[in-house]
Design goal:
There is one protein chain. By secondary structure, this protein is of the alpha+beta class. The chain is built from 11 helices and 29 strands. Keywords: Hydrolase, Protease.
Length: 479
């Protein structure tokens, strides 16, 4: 039988194991084409191979040079090459008889070094840290005028604090950088990230750019330690914004905390939520949102990482599967207005959850018909807005979104926005009319006006979203 040639290989499936010291880990393993011959290696080859790999692997684990591990002049490489060739080529009869009657080869002497002591900072860690298990974490959110919800995080070592708005329709995280040009000045209350002050900062050779509220941001990607709700996320990738940071002057928050699943070519590394899961900081790939009303009594707005918190909802969840791989998008079955016959948009429509907007946005013709039934006044502009007589708001009917045969109703307190200006109050609808291009499929934007009424569960493990009654809302209604 011919010896295997250099190019005579097969590609097997992905390899997830770690390689020995000095080897390069690749996606595929190369093996001899004749697998049966590999399995016929004689006992001597297996013994030599095992005795060679044991000290090498031990040296790799305790991070010492392999040359210090094997204290012998014996040449394992040459023996392995000879026994490998012998296992593939049949020996002459004379050689076989000599092999059987020859003296046994003595075992090589191998000396393993003792494992070095742990560094002092690791040996002094409390036992609760060394044996801690992933648990569900609550992140407190601040409600800014029912328009945006933001949390406080720390970046770097030592930590630098930032207020980041949570966005379920945006994947990345970004903060303004201290290295911005002089002509881009931030307002005094905005914090800026200084990578030179962090011991755990790592640069990435990639430029960062993104659109935020129709304006272009630019900068570069970086890595650092992120701390939020007691979780320490190592090597978190985020954008350092150095171009157009002055657009933040009118904003109460510093940057963005993206919670959308990452798509192809999005971000230069794992999202915050992905990193939390991969570093085994959370028990499940689930997060949930409770969004309170501005100036309302009750619990604080909360982002729950790793599961749900029953303190913020009651009853059972109604679930619906996701209809897009990298979005929190699902299908609704229509809209019904209380005390009115028929269903608006009865063929159903696609919808995406977006905490970055306080509105609910849909096709203009459908939203026009809905507000005509509510007695609202339409206003020109993009997006199209609608106003109500404030004296009639309390008597407006509920607007229900149909999901899995159930109506999830919104009261007038949920879908009417009151605006106070110059001592006057105006009442606007949280539902807005939008236009899509002819070749585009309309996808409704379901913003915080809807999620204030319903505790929302984002379940990536089962590719679904779920809604339960928030503590301050009315129950579901059968359709």
């Amino acid at each position: 039988m011919a010896s295997p040639q250099l190019g005579d290989v097969r590609l097997l499936g992905p390899s997830t194991g770690h390689c020995a010291s000095g080897w390069t880990q690749t996606r595929y393993r190369r093996v001899p084409a004749d697998l049966e011959d590999c399995l016929k290696m004689n006992l001597l080859s297996v013994t030599v191979l095992a005795l060679t790999l044991i000290p090498v692997c031990a040296a790799h684990v305790i991070n010492i040079p392999v040359s210090q591990t094997i204290k012998t002049s014996w040449n394992p490489t040459g023996i392995l090459r000879q026994t490998w060739k012998a296992s593939l080529e049949p020996l002459p009869q004379s050689a076989r008889s000599q092999t059987r009657s020859g003296p046994k080869r003595s075992k090589p002497s191998v000396q393993l070094l003792s494992r070095p002591a742990l560094p002092s900072e690791l040996s002094q860690r409390p036992s609760s840290d060394r044996f801690s298990r992933p648990i569900i974490r609550d992140v407190k959110l601040t409600n800014y005028n029912n328009e945006i919800y933001y949390c406080t995080i720390e970046l770097g070592t030592p930590g630098q604090k930032f207020d980041l708005a949570i966005h379920t329709s945006y994947p990345a995280m970004w903060v303004p950088s201290v290295h911005s040009p002089d002509d881009y000045s931030l307002s005094h209350f905005h914090r800026r990230y200084n990578n030179a002050s962090s011991r755990t900062y790592q640069p990435k050779v990639k430029m960062f750019n993104a659109f935020f509220e129709t304006r272009l941001l630019g900068g570069y990607w970086s890595q650092d330690t992120l701390t939020v709700a007691g979780l320490e996320v190592k090597n978190q990738t985020f954008g350092e914004v150095i171009v157009e940071p002055n657009m933040l002057e009118d904003m109460i928050f510093d940057g963005i905390f993206g919670l959308k699943p990452r798509g192809v070519a999005e971000c230069a590394g794992p999202t915050v939520f992905e990193n939390m899961v991969w570093q085994q900081l959370l028990p499940d790939r689930v997060f949930s949102l409770f969004l309170n009303r501005y100036y309302a009594d009750g619990p604080e707005s909360t982002l729950t990482l790793g599961g749900t918190n029953p303190d913020y909802y009651s009853g059972e969840f109604v679930y619906t599967p996701l209809t897009a791989p990298n979005r929190w998008q699902f299908k609704m079955e229509g809209i019904r207005i209380a005390n009115h016959d028929g269903v608006i948009n009865s063929t159903g429509f696609q919808a995406e959850l977006d905490t970055g907007t306080p509105f609910i946005q849909g096709p203009r013709k459908v939203v026009d018909a809905l507000h005509s039934m509510l007695g609202a006044k339409a206003h020109q502009g993009w997006p199209r807005t609608y106003s109500f007589d404030c004296s009639e708001v309390d008597s407006l009917p509920d607007v229900g979104f149909i999901l899995n045969g159930l109506i999830l109703p919104l009261t007038s307190k949920d879908y009417v926005i009151k605006e106070y200006k110059d001592g006057q109050v105006s009442c606007y609808s949280a539902l807005q009319g939008m236009n899509w291009r002819k070749h585009e499929t309309p996808v409704w934007v379901i913003g915080s006006a809807f999620m204030r009424a319903y505790y929302t569960k984002f379940d990536k493990d089962r590719s679904r979203v779920g809604f339960a009654k928030a503590k301050h809302t009315i129950p579901f209604i059968p359709s």
